[in-house]
Amino acid sequence: MTADRARDRPGEWVLLSYRVPREPSTPRIAIWRKLKRLGVAQLSDGLVALPADARTREQLEWIADEAIEAGGSASIWLARPATLAQERELAMAMADARTAEYQAVIDEAARAAVSNAGTTGAVRRLRAELRRIGRRDFFPPPERDRAHAAVRTLAHEPEGSATGEPNPPETDDFDGVPLESAHHQEDRA
């Protein structure tokens, strides 16, 4: 299949279908929090999705194991939305969730700039929050760049400085290789 043809159809998604007993509630809440941290799209009760790649599949497989260990059931599926419109709807819902998170960073940076107290600590916290959001940001909204710019401004860094880039190098969770470097290596191959 040619690259042009591949863009004419939805991409592959990894789905987790799961059920966890209501009691005890601790495992159910822990699973829900982990899914939220991953930034999943909630398709229905007990059915979530992420764009498919090796990392997202492995993450959902770990959560499936947790659901089973908690006395529930879980299965992993690979699927494609039936239409591009359905995929866009999923992507927009995920981007909207990240928009709200980035807006919270923008607002917090503005409050920290006005108060001018504890700016160094605020910059550190906000950068950590941007890294957390970035790990679950599959469809970056415009607020992403504005949030990074707000933190750079708070830190009194010039636009495009090494420590305030919109895409600071993140390390892969599994082997410590910067993701940007890994992508560039793939481009050369």
Task: Give an overview of the whole structure.
With 189 residues, the protein is an alpha+beta fold. It is built from 7 helices and 4 strands; from the N terminus they run αβαββαβαααα. Strands 2-3-1-4 form a 4-stranded antiparallel sheet. Strand 2 and strand 3 (47-51) form a beta hairpin. Helix 4 runs antiparallel to helix 5 (119-135). The two termini are 20 Å apart. Residues 1-5 and 162-189 have low confidence and may be disordered.
Protein topology:
Blueprint: H1 3-6, E1 13-19, H2 25-38, E2 41-44, E3 47-51, H3 54-69, E4 73-79, H4 84-115, H5 119-135, H6 143-154, H7 179-188
Antiparallel strand pairs: 1-3, 1-4, 2-3
Strand order of the largest sheet: 2-3-1-4
Assembly state here?
single chain
SS elements, strand count: 4
Query: What Rg, in angstroms, do the CA atoms define?
Result: 19 Å
Strand content: 5-15%
Order of helices and strands: HEHEEHEHHHH
Query: How much helical structure, as a percent, in the residues?
Result: 55-70%
Low-pLDDT regions: 1-5, 162-189
Number of continuous helical runs = 7
Mean pLDDT: 83
- How far is the first residue's CA from the last residue's CA? 20 Å
Summing up helix and strand content along with how strands pair, one would put the structural category as: alpha+beta
Large-scale geometry: globular
Main sheet attributes: strand count, strand direction, barrel closure:
4 strands, antiparallel
